[in-house]
Amino acid sequence: MTKKVLISGASISGPTTAYWLARNGFDVTVLERASELRLGGQNIDITDAARDIVELMGLRDAIADRHTGEKGLRFVDEDGEVQGSFPVDQEVTWTREVEILRGDLAKLIVDACPDSVDWRFGDHITALEEEGDKVRVEFAEGEAETFDIVVAADGMNSGTRDLIVGDDQTEDYLGCWASYFTIPRYERDNDWWNWYTSSNGIIVFLRPDNQGTIRASVNFLSDDSNPDHMSLEDKKRILKDKLRGSGWESDRVAHDLDGVDDIFLGPLHQVKADRWSSGRCVLTGDAAYCPTPYTGMGTTLAIIGSYILANELAAHDDHKAAFDKYERKFRDFAEKSQKLWPGVPDLAYAESEWKKYLINLGAGLAASAPMQKLVALFDGGDDENDFELPKYENRAARETA
To answer: Which residues lie in coiled coils (predicted)?
Structure first.
């Protein structure tokens, strides 16, 4: 009998799970709170075994065609002078071979899913109740339905996670907020990721995209780990207050916020759940093990974890056995990927001119030729995978053989 699966969330992990489940003959519905597929977002990279998975999905060339064109990272001062430069082809660099906008990647995965996948927008789960061999799901909109499996893939701030694991989770607040939005590209802009550290506790990123605009990010220190709901105008006001008089392109970014209609703004938490499943419900992606952007591993974990979860469900008739295998195979790598360097992220922020000077000095030293040569001596190679990807047989193909 074909199993019905409901997936909450249509960013990266949700569509990836849907792709592999549908390929294996499952009846898949994907639910997304937003009214349509969210195509915004920042530059993200795909590393480790996630590169092998997008290859298996036939997406590697399409992803390469949508590369943002980013040349590397530059630390700049208030006058725009480069303090440290890390081109993409250096040993120490933050720009990866596979760089793509989050929205572009989400669209590619959604388009790759079999036509059988049912996409529902503008709704979310409000209650889950196990009823024998089914899960009764209540929605904010529409009638309740039953499914064999429910997958929470709805991000760091997942409301579905609370319904599944309850108090068996923690959200480790990193002491800072992040924002992401798109602004116009000016003639003076370039194809580098430009990083500016202000002495008033904020960091401004300006990064190129492949659409003729600039992806901006404003990060800042804050003691507020759980803010009230913010309207778009609330977000603009908060960001403008932080940017005012901060130097470099801060005034330009504040001005351009007037024309922005989509902003992510909020505190950054690492999600750590004692268990990733309960009954017939399971977590994946940031809903299960959000590492935050400071690790650079969010997209990679989402793709690998979703691949393993979906294929373990296909390999086992017993969902409990599938969930157990999923955790056994992936938890150690997910937890390892969440580890931050000592002092991160606090070391990146400056609340004095002296610390700002030290940050830029450190960037210059790290970018120097002697340091690059030293790193090259000990580097194991960025193309090597730390995670050994399990191989699975397609269940649908096996059953029809």
So the answer is: none
